[in-house]
Design goal:
Strand order of the largest sheet: 10-11-12-16-15-14-13
Low-confidence stretches: 1-20, 137-148, 169-177
Strand content: 15-25%
CATH architecture of the largest domain: 2-Layer Sandwich
CATH superfamily of the largest domain: Metalloproteases ("zincins"), catalytic domain
Structural class: alpha+beta
CATH topology of the largest domain: Zincin-like
Largest sheet: 7 strands, antiparallel
Shape: globular
CATH class of the largest domain: Alpha Beta
Distance between the termini: 14 Å
Number of domains: 3
Number of strands: 19
Helix content: 25-40%
Length: about 475
């Protein structure tokens, strides 16, 4: 868990101007200069690293090598293209202004050929080349602040604290993952396919991975899910139809692939984490376990939970955003008062603090009501870190919710060996089929994916599809958690 972030300074970059689009060759009204575009990209790179995190698995070197070859074919060469794998379990890819391009580890788990991955990366380069991200600044900037609703509530206690609480939502509500228009998607596909062909890969492969991830989204319908590729990159029949129309007319340059066979591709992906990463905390029901920082805590049963690198949030689904508990790391210290001082509580609230010990840990607690909301707030020190737990509800509901809101702060405790022993993680492993269906294989190997999910990720039409004996298959297997 990393210290909280600040909101992105997007509004300060809105400077109107006109330029020639490097792809279309036509005049384009832009809101930022090329230098400002790259500065914005560098700022958001820092946010991505802190808010989402980067993967250290080995596959990222493969991604960078593909990206470097593709970038050499980009119609825009005045930016510095950079490539990384983000620690997102969902299949996603996105580009920031000025060159940074990311694919998620969740997307990598769907890759069955290097041509497919090249198509995804080239599509994101296409967005950068056509300055699509820049054109979204004016649209995204006003909405960045919508993520500050919980922060506005907490800001009644401390202006500093309100800004800190608001920050974890800034990326999800801001520029990096906001949607492109249908026209921009089609243009990025076309630019990307041209780059893919010039770099020596098959441009038609893009249709295959688009279809696979769309099928994955269909399997998830009706289930709770988080950010998905098609939340920001809508999969439409028009996109796939364009690939099928344009790709056959492109001349593919001769070039040696980096990973040319299915086995070589799977070798690049072997050991890739699938699903949530226990190293940054994991939920077991409503209990949150963090093996790296060595603590556990309980959120109210039935609440919706989310774990992000900068915060752990639980919210009452019926509370319309006003009933929630939030855990964040405040500072490094063995004294909880160091966290209180950093949050700069209003003077009258400082007098209401009371010293406590929670499961043997030193803590400071504040229960108060301010401007229509009730707060149960705890600062607790553990292993030379101070954590802040904020639970909030409307003031008129506090008598009925008092015990529930106290749950989170009072439950914070050191992690035990028994806690760690029950943590499991899913790692992508390569196994051989035995002339069975994908569903039967998933059952035989106790896969974390069911048969249909396994079929989609391996490019098969259904879980009932029979796999030839000896065919390599990607399968996520549950293993005991191993500390990094």
């Amino acid at each position: 868990m990393r210290p909280s972030l600040r909101l992105l300074p997007v509004l300060g970059l809105l400077v109107a101007g006109c330029a020639i689009n490097p792809v279309s060759g036509r005049p384009q009204v832009v809101l930022v200069s090329s230098d400002q575009e790259q500065e914005l990209g560098r700022e958001q790179e820092e946010v991505v690293e802190q808010e989402i995190g980067l993967v250290d698995h080995g596959s990222e070197a493969w991604v960078r090598a593909i990206g470097k070859r593709l970038a050499e074919q980009s119609p825009r060469q005045d930016v510095s293209y950079r490539f990384a794998v983000v620690d997102m379990p969902e299949p996603n890819a996105f580009a920031l202004p000025g060159g940074p391009v990311y694919v998620s580890r969740g997307l990598l788990s769907f890759v069955n050929s290097e041509d497919e991955l090249a198509g995804v990366i080239a599509h994101e380069i296409g967005h950068v080349a056509a300055r699509h991200a820049v054109s979204r600044v004016s649209l995204a900037a006003p909405f960045v602040l919508l993520a500050a609703i919980p922060g506005a509530i907490v800001g009644t206690v401390s202006q500093t604290l309100g800004a800190v609480v608001a920050a974890p939502g800034a990326l999800a509500g801001g520029l990096a993952l906001s949607s492109y228009s249908r026209g921009q998607e089609l243009e990025a596909d076309k630019i990307g396919m041209e780059m893919v062909a010039k770099a020596g890969w098959d441009p038609a492969a893009l249709a295959g991975i688009l279809h696979a991830i769309e099928r994955s989204a269909d399997l998830e319908r009706g289930k709770p899910r988080r950010q998905h590729l098609f939340d920001s990159h809508p999969a439409t029949p028009a996109r796939i139809a364009q690939v099928e129309k344009v790709a056959p007319g492109l001349t593919r340059a001769p070039a040696r692939p980096i990973a040319g066979s299915r086995s070589a591709v799977f070798g690049k992906l072997n050991g890739l984490l699938v699903g949530d990463d226990p190293a940054v905390g994991v939920f077991e029901g409503s209990t949150f376990l963090h093996p790296t920082l060595g603590f556990a805590m309980q959120f109210p049963d039935g609440w919706k939970t989310q774990n992000r690198p900068t915060a752990v949030l639980a919210a009452d689904p019926e509370g319309k955003g006003e009933i929630f508990s939030l855990l964040q790391l405040v500072t490094e210290s063995a004294d909880p008062m160091a966290g209180v001082r950093k949050d700069e509580l209003h003077d009258d609230l400082m007098k209401q603090l009371r010293e406590e010990r929670i499961h043997g840990l030193p803590a400071q607690r504040l229960v108060t009501q301010v401007k229509g909301h009730a707060f149960d707030m705890t600062w607790i020190a553990h292993q030379k870190h101070v954590y802040r737990i904020v639970s909030v509800c409307p003031q008129d509901l506090f008598p009925a919710r008092k015990a529930q809101l106290a749950t989170a702060g009072a439950s914070f405790r050191p992690l035990t060996d028994a806690d760690v022993a029950r943590i499991r993680e899913a790692r992508l492993r390569v196994r051989q089929a035995q002339g069975e269906s994908a569903t039967a294989l998933a059952k035989r190997l106790a896969s974390a994916w069911n048969g249909d999910e396994l079929a989609v990720a391996n490019g098969l039409e259904s879980g009932a599809t029979t796999l030839a004996a000896g065919r390599p298959v990607k399968v996520p297997l549950r293993e005991a958690y191993r500390a990094p």
